[in-house]
Design goal:
The chain is of the alpha/beta class.
Length: about 220
């Protein structure tokens, strides 16, 4: 796909927002915009947010601005729409996984269905792509960040659900869980790209940028 002169928007959480970088010029959203020759690359990342809706309000009000609600805020004139979320659903969301047949925003399966279907409705004929979460040091904890009252699932299960639902809607998936090059459980990778075990630093955002641009050009 030819990217030059197009407008791209990214719906995401703190990684999209740029937490962990030294400034906006190092966010992957900014880097993608410049390197890809886009006329505009717009950041709709809000830290702590999830794809699915909370049943119980969070301590931080911003965290409850879920993707299913914020899809309505994306610019109508966008040519390409990228979605990068799910790690906070694993980390501290209270929505159950649900089943593939769910269409409610209060389960993870249902919220993925709602979000992807709504993207197609809002942007018919536009290029929509989904990015899976990257690895994190707590990814095998069945209670996410440890704050969930009961065991739910490891991060990989959330990744698999995102892939499954995207396949149903025939939406392209950039599987960053598989190909980002960021696995903070490996000491040298954590030091270079993801010091806090979750948020990529400036160098990590360069890696994300390379993967995103290569994926988009091949779409």
């Amino acid at each position: 796909m030819d990217l030059k002169g197009k407008k791209i928007v990214f719906l995401g959480d703190s990684i999209t927002e740029g937490c962990g970088t030294s400034g906006v010029e190092h966010h992957f959203v900014t880097l993608v915009g410049k390197a890809g020759g886009f006329r505009e690359s717009k950041n709709y990342g809000i830290g702590g947010t999830r794809i699915a809706r909370q049943t119980k309000p969070s301590d931080c009000e911003n965290w409850d601005k879920d993707f299913c609600a914020r899809v309505e805020e994306l610019d109508e004139d966008a040519d390409i729409i990228g979605v990068f979320g799910g790690t906070n659903d694993f980390g501290h969301g209270d929505a159950p996984l649900g089943t593939f047949d769910d269409r409610t925003v209060y389960t993870f399966y249902g919220a993925c269905h709602y979000l992807m279907n709504r993207l197609i409705e809002r942007f018919p004929g536009k290029a929509i792509f989904i990015m899976t979460p990257i690895h994190r040091v707590t990814e095998d904890n069945m209670k996410g960040d440890g704050c969930k009252a009961y065991n739910v699932a490891p991060l990989k299960t959330y990744v698999e659900i995102i892939r499954e639902v995207a396949e149903y809607y025939s939406l392209p998936v950039l599987d960053l869980y598989a190909v980002s090059g960021i696995q903070p459980k490996v000491d040298i990778i954590r030091e270079r790209y993801c010091p806090d075990g979750l948020h990529p630093n400036d160098a990590g955002h360069v890696l994300l940028t390379e993967k995103i641009l290569a994926f988009l050009k091949a779409m």
